[in-house]
Specification:
Blueprint: H1 5-16, H2 23-30, H3 34-48, E1 56-58, E2 62-64, H4 67-80, H5 89-102, E3 107-108, H6 109-116, H7 120-136, E4 139-144, E5 148-153, H8 155-171, H9 175-179, H10 182-202, H11 208-226, H12 243-255, H13 260-274, H14 283-301, H15 307-318, H16 330-336, H17 338-352, H18 361-381, E6 387-392, H19 397-410, E7 414-420, H20 425-430, E8 435-438, E9 449-451, H21 458-476, E10 485-494, H22 499-512, H23 518-530, E11 534-536, E12 539-540, E13 543-545, E14 553-565, E15 568-578, H24 585-597, H25 600-607, H26 612-620
Parallel strand pairs: 6-7, 6-8, 8-9, 10-14, 12-15, 13-15
Antiparallel strand pairs: 1-2, 3-5, 4-5, 11-12, 14-15
Length: 621
């Protein structure tokens, strides 16, 4: 079976969603019509039937994959991955970057164009996006005679890009097929053999993750040296004491002559994986900076990060080249823990203003998970607060005792203020309880009322838990979210070239309305460069956070057509200007946005809104 990039995208969306996904939503994501999606789904079902996998549809709701088919389909997609000619723009961009890395002296663009079956104008647009990605790594795309393109920049930055590329291939178990380069495969296998032999000789401690990291690091170094690109300066000292590292360098030097800078560079970095790297050289300075930055971010998001977090963060950043790969991608982590992701990005931005630490996606993923753990722990500690409860019960003493016994067993945090018959409801209300549990129907708009069966059945326990979660959710969002929006900051059917164009058009209306200054645009671009603000379900939330004590506002753009946002399709853009971040409202603002976009059905309705009032009505539903 051969999967096109478009069909792979459809499958990816269906695998990521537990409920039905509408045909229109899939069409927007893939950049095609609903009719094309129907045809693709039909073709997929024909191709997948031999694997006992089926994509089902429900009239009026959309498409879904039954649970029993999901695991088989996930495995099948993994096997098919990277064996196709890329079709979608983002896939072509990744392919071009891969070719540039595999051919450091340059690639002929005519050859690339023929291989991808695209026109010169299409390739030029792809190359613009390639250059954007390279610029994120402080690199750039250059051309020379013969229509040859190559990557230009600092050697260390170039190697960092290689490292991320290698690790992706290793993780997918597709090294040979992904690289399709005999030189790299020979070097990789040769290095692997050397490391195994030396680790056994010296009894060095090297975990499986670090074993892969060392091989990747050395393969890149040797490959670059063979092609004439070596380290020209490096300020670390060379140590003769590290026996294992020196043996590795000695063996490699026999095959490829290394200059002294290259030797110092290799030794300094391999020591990190072997656990012999002294992270305390700048620990005091790093500790001071991190403590200050963590404090700033904790205040902004109104969430106190613990001392244990600070210690773990220091450890991660001091060893940021050491990457123990996670089984989960950063994009998946971002979708699962969006608020923790925003906090992590704000933290990295704050740190980079004081000391420059180059943070990879894997390091960022670790920091996000670290913050997510803190948030989960905080939720556990605050999971249930004591609540004052009155019980309205028309039944006799025996049933009253049964209700009290079950409430004590399943809800020990309840402070039961008393049992009252319905005719004494006024006395019960005078106690001002947090909630009323009743065996009869009661109408009260001020206090939540939970009507239960007199026999207190199992579904009553579920009902009470559901109401408590709803109350806790309302309590956690005290910020008046709707007041962020303005009719004069609402754009519909906007034509944009790319994500930068979308950001600029929203900034222009913010500035025109007096809601933002040029510094806001600079801050929003800086935030976007750290990590893309696409948050799934066709939504992006470019933003900047300040302390100017002005009004917090949001500009909205519904794009006429979806636009590529660093690999994700986006059609609904919220550009958030948080000018006043002094009262901890940042956390509430982002939580409100993440609640909105958690449903692709709701996003679909928002995109179809005819005007501002219909848009706000949908948000309020």
């Amino acid at each position: 079976m051969q999967l096109s990039s478009r069909k792979s995208k459809l499958i990816s969306e269906l695998l990521d969603n537990e409920s039905c996904v509408t045909g229109q939503y899939l069409a927007n994501v893939a950049g095609v019509t609903s009719r094309t999606v129907r045809g693709d789904i039909a073709e997929l079902n024909n191709e997948l039937c031999e694997y006992d996998i089926q994509i089902l549809s429900i009239s009026g709701k959309g498409y879904y994959i039954p649970m029993q088919s999901k695991s088989r389909l996930s495995e099948l997609v993994k096997i098919q991955k990277d064996y196709i000619i890329p079709i979608l723009p983002n896939a072509r961009v990744e392919h071009i970057i891969k070719q540039l890395l595999l051919n450091p002296k340059g690639v002929n663009l005519d050859t690339i164009s023929n291989h991808l079956y695209v026109s010169k104008s299409t390739l030029d647009r792809d190359l613009m996006k390639v250059n954007e990605k390279l610029q994120e790594c402080d690199l750039k795309l250059e051309k020379r005679k013969g229509n040859v393109a190559y990557i230009k920049g600092n050697e260390l930055d170039i190697r960092e890009m290689y490292r991320e590329f290698f690790e992706k291939a290793i993780k997918a178990h597709l090294l040979d097929s992904s690289f399709s380069n005999d030189d790299i495969n020979i070097i990789f296998n040769s290095i692997k053999k050397i490391i195994v032999e030396i680790v056994e000789e010296t009894n060095a401690e090297l975990s499986g993750d670090n074993f892969n990291a060392v091989i990747i690091f050395l393969t890149i170094a040797v490959f670059r040296n063979i092609n004439g690109y070596s380290i020209s300066s490096y300020d670390k000292r060379y140590s003769a004491k590290d026996v294992t590292t020196n043996k590795i360098i000695e063996r490699i030097n026999k095959e490829t002559k290394l200059n002294n800078f290259e030797k110092k560079y290799i030794q300094s970095n391999i020591k990190k994986y072997l656990g012999t790297y002294d992270v305390k050289e700048n620990l005091e300075e790093i500790d001071n900076v991190l403590n200050k930055c963590v404090s700033e971010v904790s205040t902004t998001y109104n969430f106190e990060l613990t001392k244990v977090f600070n210690e773990k963060l220091t450890s991660i950043l001091c060893n940021c080249f050491e990457t123990k790969s996670t089984e989960i991608s950063l994009s998946d982590i971002k979708k699962e823990h969006p608020l923790a992701f925003e906090m992590a990005v704000s933290l990295i931005s704050s740190i980079n203003h004081k000391i420059h630490i180059k943070v990879t996606n894997q390091v960022l993923a670790k920091i996000v998970l670290l913050i997510a753990c803190e948030m989960e722990q905080d939720m556990i500690e605050k999971e249930r607060k004591n609540r004052d409860v009155v019980v309205v019960c028309q039944s006799g003493e025996i049933l009253k005792n049964l209700i009290q016994t079950k409430l004590n067993r399943y809800f020990p945090e309840f402070n039961i203020m008393g049992f009252y018959p319905l005719y004494r409801l006024d006395k019960a209300l005078e106690l001002k309880p947090d909630m009323i549990i009743s065996t009869v129907m009661i109408n009260n708009e001020d206090i939540p009322v939970i009507v239960i069966n007199p026999l207190f059945k199992d579904y009553d326990i579920i009902k009470i838990n559901t109401v408590i979660r709803q109350i806790e959710h309302r309590e956690s969002i005290s910020y008046d979210f709707i007041n962020l929006f303005r009719e004069d900051l609402f754009l519909k059917d906007v034509d944009v070239v790319d994500k930068h164009d979308a950001i600029k058009k929203l900034f222009d209306i913010l500035k025109k309305g007096g809601y933002a200054e040029d510094t806001f645009f600079q801050a929003i671009v800086e935030r976007e460069n750290i990590a893309p603000t696409a948050i799934g379900n066709m939504v992006a939330v470019p933003h900047a956070i300040g302390n100017n004590f002005g009004d917090n506002v949001v500009a909205i753009a519904i794009l006429r057509n979806p636009v590529d946002w660093n690999g994700e399709k986006v059609q609904l853009v919220f550009e958030i200007n948080i000018q006043n971040a002094t009262d901890g409202n940042v956390k509430q603002i982002f939580k409100s946005f993440f609640d909105i976009i958690s449903s692709n059905r709701k996003v679909d309705r928002l995109i179809k809104s005819k005007n501002y009032y219909e848009f706000i009505k949908t948000i309020n539903q």
